[in-house]
Amino acid sequence: MPSQALSSDGYPGPTAPSSYTEHDIIWDGVRKVKVQLELNLARDAKNNKKGFYRYVSQKRKVKESVPQLMKRNGDLVSTDEEKAEVFNNFFSSVFSGNGYPHLSQVNGQHVGDQAG
């Protein structure tokens, strides 16, 4: 199998869209194809129950939206609260320009402080 050239965004395939308008056109086409597929599945549900229920069960599956993240010390975090803290530390350090994470304050307490 021949290897595909990488696009400017680092993914296999053609180059990334050069403008926001191109991006909109591509996603509009994807949406139209998806709508057409769903209409066909609904229309043919009586004759193609297996295909219909396969599509429905595929849509019911919950996808984990954010994978495990690694703290600066190398520990992996898996809970949503820990992930939020890792993102908070990263972005607060980026936007503050300090080069190290600082905790945002909410109601006089630092985010991540233990109550009690």
From TrEMBL:
Annotated GO CC locations = extracellular matrix
GO BP of this protein = cell adhesion involved in heart morphogenesis; larval heart development
Protein name per Swiss-Prot or TrEMBL: Uncharacterized protein
Origin organism is: Mycteria americana (Wood stork)
